[in-house]
Known about the structure:
Radius of gyration: 15 Å
Number of strands: 11
Strand content: 35-45%
Strand order of the largest sheet: 4-11-9-6
Helix content: under 10%
Largest sheet: 4 strands, antiparallel
Order of helices and strands: HEEEHEEEEEEEE
Amino acid sequence: MSAWLKDADLGLLELRGPNATLRLVNDGASVRVLDGEEIASVDEPSITVRAPSPGIFLDRHPLHERAIALVAADVRAGDPLGFLQIGPLLLAVPAPRAGTLTDVLVAHGTIVGYGTPLFALQPIEGETS
């Protein structure tokens, strides 16, 4: 699978089961396996919002000039942070919970795969949804 991941130029392959998750990460130089502790680190309080589908990442609607969500802006759960363009379809990427957007991890117009990290979100304390 590692060779296939490198040959296909995919950044992440994630397999989930009822009791475990396996992630193979291709950083361009090598493919490595992330163990469960690296995946859900207690030291990392921010949330990584990942691409729900492959597509072209858009930080703004094609008819608008400004990004839909700006770094340091507060967002509510469900607010769109950006879009994935899949052919003529635009798929919104929603905030999974209320928080402050701390980083946009992908440039506008970049082709992304399923699970690609797109945003870093710092949850607002006391907010669960």
